[in-house]
Structures are given as C-alpha cells and as structure tokens.
Amino acid sequence: MMHDVVVPYFKRYYVTNEYGLSMECEAPKCSAPNLGHVMYEYCNFIHTDMEDIKKGRVTPNWIDNLQENEVFVFGSNLAGMHGGGAARVAHRRFGAIMGKGVGMQGRSYAIPTMQGGTETIRPYVDDFIAYAKEHPELTFLVTPIGCGIAGFEPEDIAPLFKEACNVSNIWLPESFWKELD
Fold it and tell me: Distance between CA atoms of 111 and 159, rounded to whole angstroms?
C-alpha cells in the first residue's frame, strides 16, 4: 500500500530540485477523514527534518582552497599513491602524503576506496566519522569518494555515511544527500 499511495502522492505534490524536496502545493483534502491533513503534515515533517539536517552542509562541486578550519576528505588507495582524481588534488593542494592511504594528513583526510567492495570501505568511513566527532572544531568536506576512479556510484557509497547525517561538522556531496534523503 505504501508504494501505491505514498510514492504517487510525493510525485504529484512535491518537486525535486538541487536541494532535495520542495513543496509544490498544499496537499488536497481527501474523502477519508483527516487523511489529507495527516499526509500533508507527515510529508512536511519529512521535508523539514531532512532539510534541517542537511542545511548548509553540502560539499561544493569543486574545491581548490579551504578555509582555516576545513578538511578535504577524499578517496584513496591503501598504498597512498595519490596520482589521480581527488587524491591528486589532496596531494598537490592539501597536504596528502604519498605512501599514506588512510586518515588525517595535512589539511586532508584519506578514506581508502580501491581495495574491494563497499564492505571493505565501511570500517574506514566509520573511523572517519568517529574522528570527525572527536574534532568538532573542524569542518570535513567529503568529496564523492569512490565515485570516480574506484568505479562506485553514489547509491553504493552514500549509505556508508548515514551516521554522518547527524554529525554537524561533516558535509556531504549533493549526490550523497539525494541518496540519503
């Protein structure tokens, strides 16, 4: 029933934009007692809640400089050979160290993504989230890790960052927020 009722309802009364769901118009009144009002309140709650969580926490599409308290979070390989993609940017601009494939280095944080499937990436993401929680004075700008040279899609990697939604100093790419919405 959920798929038959709720999904078409969302498609009709909500539109998506670069920031997620936005209200197109108020929900219609329904013949079932209070269903239209309840559905409107429920949908409005979901929209507001995720927007509040995400508010201002979208990693820019391109990062070529950082504010004093910002950290560039990138996908790496375990050997720390930062030769391409965001890893190369991290090495050239933000202090990533050749030969170091995991953790904080300079003004960047490496999360290995080239060693297997998502189950091999999860422990490194969990370690990163724990590190970010321990350092609330820093803002961590997560790039779309694993979605370049490593060959994953946002729908593969974004769920690994579900806990990061509640960590205010972790920013995620728009493509990850869309998957977590």
Answer: 15
